[in-house]
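Entry for magnesium ion complex. Fields follow.
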Amino acid sequence: MTDIRTGLGYDLHRLEAGRPFVLGGIHIPSDFGPLGYSDGDALIHAICDAMLGALSLGDIGQHFPDTDPDFKGINSMILLEKTVALIKQHGYSINNIDTTVILEKPHISPYMDAIKESLDGVIGIGVDRISVKATTNERVDATGEGKAIAVLASILLIK
Ligand code: MG
């Protein structure tokens, strides 16, 4: 019998002046960027949480705690590598990933292909199986006012 597991991930980071804007491992030119203990890559964090959720292995905060100096300022691609390795260790493969980035500014559409290729460099399922969508929050609440970036992710694993 095929063993199929779905996972759900969510992340939000405050945006602050002078921080680099990193999304899916890609630097996007911006005067502000996500605040975080790591590099604040909300897309990767949401994907990792979806992966861990599908495995019923808790959340990203348990695996990579923000009290551990090893993770201070860490490139989130390393967290993604470690989480993908966990999926393999448990005998699953990734069928596909779907994500939605909720962000007012900067506009990320010119970087979508680069982001997908960057993610697939670690995930390795082909860019046609990694979806990154973008929307705004219509200028309401913190995300809509440009004070935060939020990301939703879902994943399907198969054994
Ligand atoms: Mg995060």
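NOTE: The CA atoms of residues 106 and 132 lie 15 Å apart.
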